[in-house]
Amino acid sequence: MKRIIVACMAMLGFSSMNAQNIEDALRYSSPQLSGTARFRALSGAFGALGGDLSAMSHNPAGSAVFKTSEIGITATNYDRENESNYFGTFATTSESEFDISQFGAVFVFDETGDSDWRKLSLGFNYELSNNFDDDLFAAGVNNVTNNLGEFVGSIDTYFLSFAEGIPVGLLELQDGETLGDLYQFLGETEGFGAQQALLGYQGFILDLDPNAPDQDSYLLNSEFPNGADHEYTVTSRGYNRKFTVNLGTQYKDNLFLGANLNVHDVNFRKLTILDEIGFDDNGDALQQIYFENDLFTFGEGFSFQVGAIAKVNDDVRLGLSYQSPTWYRLNDELTQYVETVGLDPDFPNDPLALDPRVVNVYDEYRIKTPGKLMGSFAYVFGKQGLISFDYIRTDFSEAELRPDTDPAFQDENAFISDVLTASNEFRLGGEYRLNQLRLRGGYRFAESPYEDGETIGDLESYSLGLGYDLGGAALDLAYQRSEQGRDQQLFNVGLVDAARVNSINNNVTLTFTLKL
User: CA-CA distance, 39 to 202, in Å (whole number)?
Assistant: First the structure.
């Protein structure tokens, strides 16, 4: 009862802190280039071509270009390498895996009467829009100070930023109360920020300021004579899958139209670990902080697409398509663990493990990703080959976290609108035919979604591929390499310093298609 009274009287007006931010909005707004080997080999420049199962998911009119029904399956080997630079210290991590990345079918029905509508196509396609499996490691000595010359490069500033203003009575265990009991109580009544304050205070990272009249101000229980030595690890796993149902039609000889309904499935897990040492060992209690956050996100989304392809003449093709925003409904679950180590004889339970064993289950929230508009051009050299170009425009500043009545989401949406911008993407691909053999190549360039062009840099990608026509079937192989730099911020509050990361993706894709 005492705890409830303190919470109601002293903490009224404290709002919970939502874990969702700009990083989540961008994660689901930036699908990877995925699909069949032929699609990847041309770097996805298929908007005016069609006739490919992944092109159907790119421009819905592409299904009506098929002359016969077809089914196909794709396997991809993903190889990722992250090169990090944290305060001059370099580290490299890599991750490799194999997955079924695409499966689809299209069924073509020719019109036998005198109608100008020559063809109807029905299609289904599954693609792994994003493979989230990734590993990152960054390490180095942080020597950052503020304008007063005070060292601020420790994780202790993270806990302090949440603790200021919280009465210490809320952070102290009562008789018979466990850490997990109090952690859960604070999460249900005061929110995420109070839980972080609890971990900092009970872990002896923070001490109550004895001069604070309201007992709601804290001091850092640490000194760093040579800076904080950090080891930062992020392990991500999961996927964003896209299931497409397509309807296409051909009008006369030169116009193809189509529409898609898409269902998106999200499963994402991110384990973040920071291990910090470098404390002054001359009598200070604190010597090491280990902080672990395990975030699990799951949910689903919906989007639609419409598109058209026009044959200007026997050689020239033009394409236009629109992809709506994707409306996601997502759920987050978070667990946390802190361990501290001290040398002072008064430091209890060395090391001191703070494991609440509580899963924070947050309210369902929504993300609206920006829509996309694509214009395409292709030139077909008879039966010898083709060249194709796509231009895609995406205004990332239109991404939103919802409900927008949530004050935290309102602030974050204003931040998204300020720092993100419209991005232009260019895709160029070509194919040359030698009897049954196909030689392919492509190039892709996508501008940064950030106004500064640095927080996430431009993306550049190259691709090569081979195909062989087996008559009633085809076998295609593609190699794709992409590279993009970004600033990996350690935390959103307190310790906001970033490692510079260069991500290199090398993918090998194999597709088998069968005409029905």
Answer: 55
pLDDT digits (tens, 9 = 90+) for 114-147: 889 989 999 999 999 999 999 999 999 999 998 8
Q: Would residue 464 count as lying in a domain?
A: yes
End-to-end alpha carbon distance in the chain: 72
Q: How many domains does the chain have?
A: 1
Digit-coded pLDDT (tens) for 387-428: 999 999 999 999 999 998 888 899 999 999 999 999 999 999
Q: How far apart are CA 187 and CA 193, in angstroms?
A: 8
The CATH number assigned to the domain holding 354 equals 2.40.160.60
Q: What is the rounded distance in angstroms from the CA atom of residue 111 to the CA atom of residue 472?
A: 23
Q: What is the DSSP letter of 8?
A: H
In this prediction, residue 191 carries a pLDDT of 93
| Identity of the amino acid at 346 | D
Separation between Cα atoms, residue 257 and residue 63, nearest integer Å = 9
Q: Which range is least confidently modeled, 146-150, 200-204, 329-333?
A: 146-150
**Does residue 217 form part of some domain?**
no
> Which token pair is 235?
């392990």
CB 513 within 8 A of CB 71: yes
Domain that holds residue 510: 2-151+226-515
Q: Which two tokens stand for residue 505?
A: 């993706």
Q: In this structure, is the dihedral angle defined by the CA atoms of residues 271, 297, 487 and 196, taken in order, positive or negative?
A: negative
In a domain, 167, yes or no: no
Instruction: Tell me the pLDDT band of 14, cut-offs 50, 70 and 90.
Output: very low
pLDDT at 283: 56
In a domain, residue 236? The reply is yes
Q: Give me the chain's average pLDDT, please.
A: 93
Q: Please count the CA atoms within 13 angstroms of the CA of 151 that sit on its side-chain side.
A: 20
